[in-house]
Every structure is written in C-alpha cells, then in structure tokens.
Fold:
Amino acid sequence: MSRTTLHAYLAAQQSQLPNLTADLSQIVLQITAACHQISTALQQGALAGILGSADSGNIQGEVQKKLDVISDDLLVDALTQGGLTAAIASEEQDHMVVTNTDGRYLVLFDPLDGSSNIDVNMSVGTIFSILPRPAKTELSTEDFFQAGQHQVAAGYVLYGPSTLLVLTLGAGVDVFTLNQQTGEFILTAKQLQIPADTQEFAINMSNQRHWEAPVKQYIDECLAGKTGTRGKDFNMRWVASMVGDVHRILTRGGVFMYPYDFKDPTKAGRLRLMYEANPMSLLIEQAGGAASTGRVRILDVAPHDLHQRVPVVLGSKHEVERVTAYHQTHDAAQNTPQQG
Ligand code: F6P
Structure:
C-alpha cells in the first residue's frame, strides 16, 4: 500500500493552495518534528523522571508540569532553529519572542494542552495556530492581534494510544498518524466532516451551578432525554483535555462547551482564544461544524491580549446554532423593558 507522508502531502498541496508557501510547509514540518520528540518524551514518562510539577508557574497562575516546560522548550527550539518564523507566542510564556525579523509567519501554540492528564496517563495534545505576519517592518505583540479567520494553518497533535496530527491549511481537515520509529506522519484520514446533528455533549458538569441561564436550559434539555423537549436521549463525555474532546467531535460529532460562568466573573471563560479556541474553531469550521462564544462566531473575535480567555461552544452545527439561539433569546429578554 502506498503511503503519503506529511512531507509529500505538503509538497502536493503547495501546487493547489496559493496560500501554502514553501516557508509555511517547512514551519508545519518543524512543529510536527518537535511533536514527535514530545510524543517520545510522553511515552518514556516516569522512566525518564519527567512526570510531576516543575516548581514553576505560568502567566495564567497555573503550576507547570515538567512536561509543559519540556514541550515548550522543544517547540521554541524547533521554530527558532528552523529560522523561518518571524515571532512565536506560547501559552506557557508571558510575552511573544521574535525569532527572525525577516520571517513571514507568526506561530502560536499551547505546547501541552490538558496537562493535568499527564500524571494519570491520559490523552494530552499540542495545539498550534499560524498567522501571516502583517506587512510592516517592526514586529510587535499587536501583530498577533488578528481574528482567527486570518489563520493560514492550524492543527493539533493528539498524544493518545496513537499520536495523530490533525491539520487544516484552509481547505478541509486531514489526519496523519505518527510512525514513532521513523518520525514520519502518514496520511490516514481525509476531509473529516462533522455530522450536523448529535446526541452527545461534553461539558464539565461540576460547574453547573455557575452557568448562565441559556447554558443551563440547553443542558437540562439534553439531560431530560426522550421524555423532554428534545425527544431523544443524550450521552455525555468529558476527557478534560480539549484536544481529546475536539478529536472525538471531529470523528463522530458532538458538542463541546466551556461556557462563561459566574465561578470567577472576572474571567471571560476558561479557554484561551489564541492558543486553544481559534485553532480548534478553524478545524471545526473546516470540517463543517460551528464554533461560537454563545454570542458571536469565535473566528470573528478581535484579540486584544495574547492570553485572553473566551467562552467556547463548538461542534455539530445544529447544536451550536441551538445554544446560540438560546443566548439570543435570553439576551433579548434581558434587554426588554418590563411592563407594568
Ligand atoms: O486548560 C485547558 C484545559 O485543560 C482543556 O484542555 C480542557 O478542556 C479543560 O481545561 C479542562 O477543564 P476542567 O479542569 O474544568 O475539566
């Protein structure tokens, strides 16, 4: 059986996709080479003494795992030595770093998403987003503040029973499986499509009492199952790693929600717009799904901070539309002056 490597795939796509330059292809290959090393480190786990905390915190105030730091270093080194990226921004670092003043692309990444899963040997992932560098000489943090719709590529690597790369270059979503021995990612599924309807939702139910009314309404209706207004039973899944949950949705449909809640009203949501929500939303839309904050399309959100958070509702189109409609009805009622 002939097998298409990521190298060969990118070379072939270059003649078909005008935005896919040789530099962009190389940057994708540099990211995935680092992910191969991350995958190897994860497989060694306790044998390499790399589980547990790193005695450091990140800008989000979260305790870093050793593997968060190792993964971050591997990606930073790969992109810096690769010499093609203008600047990088990592979820684990306070500020962006200029890597090549002549580079044409900006790369953002969450080196190890869902890292609380590491110590219990469950799935984690690396998420990346690539933006074009604005046409001006001096590089600054503001250059990253482009809405997600401007991403030229996005993807994640899921470290599960197999290590998978899920990639979009703006023309659908394809999947590659890592051959751990050779380090090559091999094309194993093409043009994923998310079913528009679903009977499966993913949400951290322990936050239920903090949710806004539209989210409560939606989940209550799912829980009511056949006997409720939806007239069908729903199933629930929660991997606690966004990469794992999104991968399931890209594979068989479903809706994933990390909505705004009142647990800490100062936070706009839990997930980060630029490292998590934007790349995942591009993948979901490219596979025929939808991604919203509950009120606006995520890919339209104008960033103002590298580490800003955002509510996330994504997956099967009809369910995301339903959740958004509940928010609209709720907001309209709130703004309607009371009679009498
Ligand atoms: O920080 C991001 C993240 O780990 C996601 O990958 C995941 O979906 C979510 O947080 C898990 O949140 P919780 O700890 O509330 O289950």
